[in-house]
Design a protein that fits this description.
Layout: H1 2-8, H2 12-30, H3 36-42, H4 46-64, H5 69-72, H6 75-94, H7 100-124, H8 128-146, H9 154-163, H10 166-182, H11 196-227, H12 234-252, H13 258-275, H14 280-311, H15 315-336, H16 347-359, H17 361-367, H18 369-377
Helix pairs in contact: 2-7, 2-8, 2-10, 3-4, 3-9, 4-7, 4-15, 6-7, 6-9, 6-10, 7-10, 8-12, 11-13, 11-14, 11-15, 11-16, 11-17, 12-14, 13-14, 13-16, 14-15
């Protein structure tokens, strides 16, 4: 009887909200954003296509965050965006194009709009920690499974890639119905001006955690798979398991401790990598620490943006997500174009990555003081986005 009681603690709506985002992210991570399916379909072109998508997706996050709520959360636009993604995914996959970069950019922009349309659902969420935890866990499990598509013949890979376009369409249908049922378009978060210190804090944390963490992740993962090529996709499964564990723990306590913990885990991983990676056990421990640090970073970041959006306005989400995409992608571009030597090959680059992480920590603590005070005073703040009773609308609390 204990297990069913624990399961009931997670509302059904939270699970459905999580699945909506998970479907969108599964398509993004497995295909257009440097996913394994992109490499299988486009070969050498995949690298450029992935960067075109990532850039347009991040830029779209920032631009579309300035749209009025009535436009951003319109049911017809949300559902139409999911349908267009599915159609363009099929065209992109099956029809040879002279310039596939154009569709890559369009997909990045439309998917950015779709992710932002989910934000009001997340702001209304009664169990935000579990919702984002389930979403990222599910998306990464499905991402890990798509790594096995390289065992399929090329025609079946193309079919699988095109079918991933159904995932954002399903997510869009749920999000659109959710907006309509609960009338979320009329519920707005805070409407305060975003202070410069808040913008700097978001940039500082993104730069410290995502750039440094992504920099070392890109260096360690190839080294890991060179030792154990048979365990394909294991990094996605590890990410999913650690993310869910952190979400469960953060739900029981406070998520605010995840920020310092994220930087500490990444710092420990970097320290081991700088000292020695000669033995297999050192490679495994380093990879686990970096993955755990990125999981804590991502969970803390999403929940931080949620609280800042409730205090200020929802533009914070677009700005934050757009910046995180830039900083987590920039290390890969720097390494691939040899703007920076790999941290395993250059001691100076290794120290730079570590120093960035540790030196930025005091700034993060300073700039995010208002956020840390939020949990203490949020009981006194008006919660403009709490769901009201929706009589006969199908909206469940």
């Amino acid at each position: 009887m204990i297990l069913p009681q624990k399961i009931k603690l997670v509302p059904q709506d939270s699970v459905l909200n999580a699945l909506a985002l998970a479907f969108i992210f599964t398509w993004i991570l497995s295909y257009p954003m440097h996913g394994p399916l992109l490499e299988e379909i486009f070969g050498p072109q995949a690298y450029i296509l992935g960067h075109f998508f990532t850039f347009s997706h991040g830029l779209g996050m920032i631009i579309f965050s300035f749209l009025p709520p009535v436009v951003l959360n319109d049911k017809r636009l949300v559902v139409s965006s999911g349908a267009v993604i599915f159609i363009l995914t099929c065209i992109w996959t099956f029809i040879p194009l002279n310039n596939p970069n154009v569709i890559s950019v369009i997909l990045g922009l439309i998917s950015a709009y779709l992710v932002l349309s989910w934000i009001p659902v997340f702001l209304n969420e009664k169990s935000p920690v579990i919702t984002i935890g389930l979403a990222m866990t599910t998306a990464n499990v499905l991402l890990g499974l798509t790594c096995f598509t390289h065992f399929l013949s090329y025609p079946f890979v193309k079919i699988a890639a095109s079918l991933t376009g159904l995932a954002p369409l399903l997510g869009a249908l749920y999000i659109g119905n959710r907006h309509f049922a609960c009338n979320l378009t009329k519920k707005e978060a805070g409407n305060k001006k975003i202070k410069t210190s808040t913008i700097v804090s978001i940039i500082a944390f993104s730069l410290a955690a995502y750039f440094s963490g992504g920099f070392w992740f890109r260096a360690i993962v190839p080294l890991f798979y060179s030792q154990w090529p048979a365990v394909i996709g294991i990094d996605s499964f590890l990410y999913a398991a650690i993310y869910l564990a952190l979400a469960v723990y953060a739900r029981k306590f406070s998520y605010l401790w995840l920020g310092p913990v994220a930087l500490s885990l990444l710092g420990l991983g970097l320290t081991i990598a700088i000292i020695s990676l000669d033995r297999p056990v050192e490679i495994i421990i380093t990879l686990l620490l970096i993955i755990a640090g990125l999981c804590a970073t991502d969970l803390y970041y999403w929940l931080t943006l949620r609280d800042l959006s409730k205090i200020l306005n929802t533009r914070v989400f677009g700005l934050g997500l757009g910046l995180s995409l830039f900083f987590i992608t920039a290390p890969g571009i720097a390494l691939d174009t040899q703007l920076l030597p790999g941290p395993l090959l250059s001691p100076a680059t290794a120290v730079l990555g570590a120093c960035l992480l540790f030196m930025i920590n005091p700034l993060i603590i300073w700039y995010l003081r208002p956020l840390h005070q939020y949990e203490q005073v949020k009981a006194d703040l008006p919660n403009n986005l709490d769901e009201k009773t929706c009589n006969d609308t199908g909206c469940r609390n």
